[in-house]
Amino acid sequence: MIFAGIDIGGTKCAACIGTESENGELQILSKERFDTIVDSPYDMIAILQGSLHKQLSEMQNVQLDGIGISCGGPLSSKTGTILAPPNLPKWDNIPITASFEAEFKVHTTLQNDANACAIAEWKYGSGKGTHNFAFLTFGTGFGAGLILNSQLYCGSNDMAGEIGHIRAETDGPVGYRKHGSFEGFCSGAGIAQLGRMMVIRETAAGNTPKLLSECGDIPSINAKAIAELAEQGDALCRDIYRISGEKLGKALSIMVDLLDLDAISIGSIFTRSYHLLWDSCNKVMEQECLPISYRHCRILKSVLGDKVGDIAALAIAAYSAEK
Q1: Would you tell me how many other CB atoms lie within 10 Å of the CB of residue 286?
Q2: Which of 23, 45, 53, 119 is 20 to 30 A from residue 253's alpha carbon, by CA?
Q3: Residue 17 in contact with residue 4, Cβ under 8 Å?
Q4: In terms of Cα–Cα distance, which of 191, 161, 146, 121 is closest to 251?
Q5: pLDDT tens digits, one per residue of 224-259
């Protein structure tokens, strides 16, 4: 079967064509990427549709079996409407599936990016063979896509899995516009905030952390610099990752106890910095989780890694075709 995938992000968009083989593997046949035109959604949609037409014209006798669209929420998968994503400020109430169905005369499905990645990782990556599975983003944001009883679970408003919005502490780094939220501790921006807070504390005590020397000033402190120094053994940066790992363990404990999952796969920063996060994360889970659920649920690095975003939209189309 031949599918098209559309990935819409705050800075980049992509259009691709792919196929699912008889043995259940997904292969990208062609792909184009574009800078996102944030302030003109319909111009961006026209570019993506033009790209699909171009890619299809370069293939012989190809007919689409479905289109999948991945985009940051909030959105409505039921009506196929992008509602008001914070990283796409003028993309309000865009009926995107109707536009693609009118253009290509084929069923089109919209899902938020966390759900799309969950489907991809479940069908083609670390979640293969599970019935109850979650994929956690741990990069720009911190949120979960949920597969429950071998079905994608979206909730009533496509808002299921927003673990990052839950408050981990009464105060702390900001995520989801909430001080101390799990996203505040478990995201690239959150780790950077945590680094700035800890450097301020150190300088107030009369110390000059290496992190401050490397970055030049406090506003310039970023997650990349923290990761690099942590890899070199810098004590402060290791402590930042310890705190992030502890909060990750707390978030995972909630998910494990609440949902009794077979596995949770985590991408981006967790995949790259597993050795900096896992010990503190696992220690908290051992203390917090119900023992039976803790022993059963595997915590995994994303198998698809940085490729998960490339196939997520295609995975939506393939999953929808099965239904």
Answers
A1: 12
A2: 119
A3: yes
A4: 161
A5: 999 999 999 999 999 999 999 999 999 999 999 999
Q: What is the total residue count of the chain?
A: 323
Handedness of CA 48, 49, 50, 53 (dihedral sign): positive
User: In which residue are the tokens 């993506």 written?
Assistant: 48
- Let me know: does 261 contact 133? Beta carbons within 8 Å: yes
Q: Which amino acid is at 164?
A: G
Distance CA 226, CA 241 (A): 9
Alpha-carbon span 168 to 316, nearest angstrom: 31
Name the residue type at position 227: A
Helix (H, G, I), strand (E, B) or coil at 180: coil
Assess contact for 5 and 67: CB atoms under 8 A.
yes
Assigned token pair, 85 = 């994503």
Q: Which residues contact 201 (CB under 8 A, 6 or more apart)?
A: none
Is residue 259 a contact partner of residue 266, using CB atoms and an 8 Å limit?
Answer: no
If you search the block for the tokens 């959105």, which residue do you land on? 75
Question: Is a pLDDT exceeding 80 seen at residue 306?
Answer: no
Cβ–Cβ under 8 Å, residues 229 and 210: yes
**Residue of 228, 131, 249 whose CA lies nearest to 185:** 249
Side by side, the strands of the sheet bearing 66-71 are 26-35, 12-20, 2-8, 66-71, 108-112
Predicted local confidence at residue 247, as pLDDT: 97
